[in-house]
Design a protein that fits this description.
Length: 367
């Protein structure tokens, strides 16, 4: 006796491209739904007025001029790392090593500032630090790219491993450079002379960093959309076999793209040491190498969308810290609200790309 075949209650199919208006309607709806859930969670767990909490979130991000500049600075750093990772991801090379590549750029900058700060003029030192940071970041990314291109190694594990090597290398030199001895900290490098520091514009130390990242953003947009290299990255990402068939040298594209990715990460490390923190620690990147992955995926490798995705994450992070301070809550509650919002925003991409079909009792389906 043959068994009766039962249709599943749900099944999922790939959508055709949705119109722009519907796509953004889904995204806006996801944000509204996230805010409603956050309001319910806030009331249930704390008894606070959700509107006061949301107001504090906004104030914590842009409530004062100083907060607004810090927001722009954090946006610039995260966006720079996200832009660095995007060419590799578009090529389907899963570069999880942004954290280590940034650290190597920062390490090279600190190395030059410490050992050459008294030997050459500050302007020349800035250029030397920049060159060293870009080269170190590029080489750190080239190592897994070379092994991937020649022997098809697993780039995900390789780049992840390189992060830990970079962290331990920086930790070793932090002990050598620590001031005072036994503190486990390098302290502010060249504090008395400012040698190797990026110059201020007015009284603001962040403006140059923001301008540099604006230039990188415009350059990456042009590179991916209009250059021959950007076209080759897209073809390799679609199919390496097709790329080889049309005459693209896949090995060369992989290594060239990872050199670019690592160079921008190294550049970011240079900005953080020379222009922002003026010191180095093992936690200098602060997890931004992994946040950059989320930004790149959330924006679907679109450079313009990456600006808004980075702004959203930085805005939530800055505002969440203010919630903890004002209302006397621990950071975990702020992280809960941030996680809820990001969950809805990331989850809505599923409904943009896929359609859920529900089987009726009659056997027919409705979407």
């Amino acid at each position: 006796m043959s068994k009766k075949h039962s249709e599943p209650l749900l099944h999922i199919t790939k959508r055709k491209d949705l119109p722009f208006t519907k796509t953004w309607a889904i995204r806006i709806g996801a944000i509204i739904a996230a805010l409603i859930v956050c309001a319910i969670v806030t009331t249930a767990l704390t008894g606070l007025n959700p509107l006061s909490v949301f107001g504090t979130l906004v104030y914590g991000a842009v409530g004062t001029e100083r907060k607004a500049w810090i927001l722009l600075k954090e946006l610039a750093v995260l966006l720079s790392i996200s832009l660095a990772l995007t060419p590799a991801f578009k090529m389907k090379f899963w570069n999880l090593g942004g954290e280590g590549q940034v650290l190597m750029g920062a390490w090279a900058t600190a190395l030059c500032m410490i050992y050459m700060g008294d030997l050459i003029p500050s302007g020349l030192l800035i250029i030397v630090c920049l060159a060293a940071a870009v080269i170190c970041g590029a080489l750190w990314a080239l190592i897994p790219a070379f092994f991937k291109a020649k022997w098809n190694t697993n780039e995900t594990l390789f780049t992840l491993m390189m992060n830990y090597v970079a962290i331990q290398l920086v930790a070793y030199f932090v002990i050598i450079w620590e001031v005072p001895k036994g503190s486990g900290k390098v302290g502010i490098i060249n504090q008395s002379t400012n040698a190797g520091w990026l110059p201020y514009i007015g009284t603001n130390s962040y403006i140059l960093v923001i301008l540099f990242v604006a230039v990188i953003t415009a350059g990456m947009f042009i590179y991916l959309k209009y250059s021959k290299h950007g076209y080759e990255i897209s073809v390799v990402g679609e199919s390496q076999r097709t790329a080889s068939y049309v005459g693209i040298k896949v090995d060369r594209v992989i290594m060239r793209t990872l050199i670019l990715s690592g160079a921008i990460c190294g550049f970011t490390g240079w900005m953080m040491v020379s222009g922002i923190d003026h010191t180095i620690t093992t936690t200098l990147a602060g997890g931004r190498g992994f946040l950059g992955i989320m930004v790149s995926w959330l924006a679907q490798f679109n450079v313009v969308a990456m600006i808004f995705a980075s702004l959203l994450i930085v805005f939530l992070s800055q505002g969440a810290g203010e919630i903890s301070t004002i209302f006397g809550l621990n950071q975990s509650f702020a992280d809960i609200l941030t996680g809820i919002i990001l969950f809805f925003i990331i989850g809505c991409e599923f409904f943009i790309n896929y359609k859920v079909h529900i089987r009726k009792k009659s056997g027919k389906e409705e979407a």
